[in-house]
Amino acid sequence: MVDATPLLPGLSPVQGKAIVARFDGGRLSSEGGLLALREIERRLGVADRLAGCLTDPRAPERVEHRLAEIIRFRMLMIAGGYEDGNDADALRRDAMFKLALDRLPSDDELCSQSTISRLENLPDVRALLRLGRALIEQYCASFRQVPKRIILDVDDTFDRVHGAQQLRLFNAYHDDYGFQPIVVFDGEGRFVTALLRPGKRPGGHEIQRLSASSGWRDPEQLAQGRDPAARRQPLYRPGSPRLVPRQPGRLGARPGSQCGVAPPCRGAVNTG
Question: What's the rounded mean pLDDT across residues 29-40?
Fold first, then answer.
């Protein structure tokens, strides 16, 4: 019988122990950390929450990959360092990615790059607003008690592009083409929401519009920004709507921003 996977000869022993190298390891993956991320995502329900903000135009009887599964796959790709959607064509066969999406390594492949591309081009403006509010709802749901004060750190960051994407602009400071999204964190560094925008520096009026469209209501909410352009203009005008509990002990945005998904779990994070 011919051995299809022979030993690699010529390896010297170490302290009397033989070293054997073979090539019959089977299906291997270096993405074991995805299983931990799977448990976190399952607890938070981010993919289901975002999928609830979208309308699936496909015929239900022909759907092979649900929206939540595609979103979950895309999130895990980015978390694993695979920002390029083209990587999906190789990762769809990866055993760890399959396990992270509740499939056995021998099951059918995950969705392809073209499916991910169609998903990323699916949302319209209203859907994007719902997605942004869903992220805020996710943040609000992390509090066990409504905080007395929320400090929002509103900044922009340059996101370099490598193609002719829409909204890309040339940024003289960074000497390249890209986007310049607005990202919002709270005073403790926790992510709140983000807004994709053209590659130019935003002003305070854009922060005001972001606050209004996101549904914040704002009594004890302070806004700060490291961006000099943001500091030159008021971020919030006096008399703006207020951030109030939607239910006793719950923090929320404007009614109707739950996107039709199940209520968020309580007590994911306690910030005191």
Answer: 87
